[in-house]
Specification:
The chain is mainly alpha-helical and 194 residues long. It has helices spanning 3-23, 56-68, 70-80, 96-130, 137-141, 178-182, and strands at residues 32-39, 45-52, 88-93. 46% of the residues lie in helices and 11% in strands. A hairpin with a 5-residue loop joins strand 1 and strand 2.
Length: 194
């Protein structure tokens, strides 16, 4: 879009908005907001994007009213703007503003619910702090921030046979390790009970 086209589109938007606000007496055209305008490169036609607050039937009524008043609005553009051609207007209902308003309302409601639940949590924490003897530890157990530590593994116990006896453990004689004397057939094992 060229600079001239953008300037003409903005001027048309201003004239249309002023005419709708102060010049139209049609009761169907109310709660209408002129959002923006898009002019064709030859400036012979302009799409005017509008938003209508209220129920969908209000939007339908407003669109019918604007279509009926299109000639009057185009005449106002011809009188107020010095253009070679008076652009033909096409009104387009833009649901973006309505969706943005609905989304904003949903977000405000969600933030209010979050604030209310946070306030309830703070009130509960204040009650617990005021009455520590009434503290319910089972309720607090679910609010752990760190996972519980795993239990250390138990040492394996080896049983010889089905008698349940513990096997002998080979102790290393002084001056070496058990591995050094394990292959020595003459080494005397010393039994150390567990």
């Amino acid at each position: 879009m060229s600079r001239r086209t953008a300037k003409v589109a903005e001027a048309v938007r201003e004239v249309v908005a002023t005419t709708i606000l102060f010049g139209l007496k049609d009761p169907r055209v109310k709660n209408v907001t002129v959002l923006w305008a898009d002019a064709a490169p030859d400036l012979k036609s302009v799409k005017v994007f509008i938003s209508v607050r209220g129920e969908p039937r209000h939007a339908v009524l407003a669109m019918h009213g604007l279509e009926s008043a299109r000639g009057f609005i185009q005449h106002q553009i011809a009188v107020q703007l010095d253009l070679r051609y008076t652009p033909v207007l096409q009104f387009v209902l833009d649901p973006g503003a309505k969706l943005a308003a609905e989304t904003s309302a949903v977000l405000r409601e969600a933030m209010a619910q979050t604030a209310a639940s946070t306030a309830e949590g703070a009130a509960d924490a204040a009650d617990v702090a005021a009455n520590p003897e009434e503290r319910d530890l089972s309720a607090l157990a679910g609010n752990e921030t760190e996972p519980p530590m795993p239990e250390p593994p138990m040492p394996e116990q080896r049983f010889s046979g089905e008698t349940g006896e513990t096997p002998e453990v080979w102790a290393a004689p002084s001056g070496g390790t058990a591995a050094d004397h394990q292959d020595d057939p003459g080494a005397e094992p010393s039994a150390v009970p567990r």
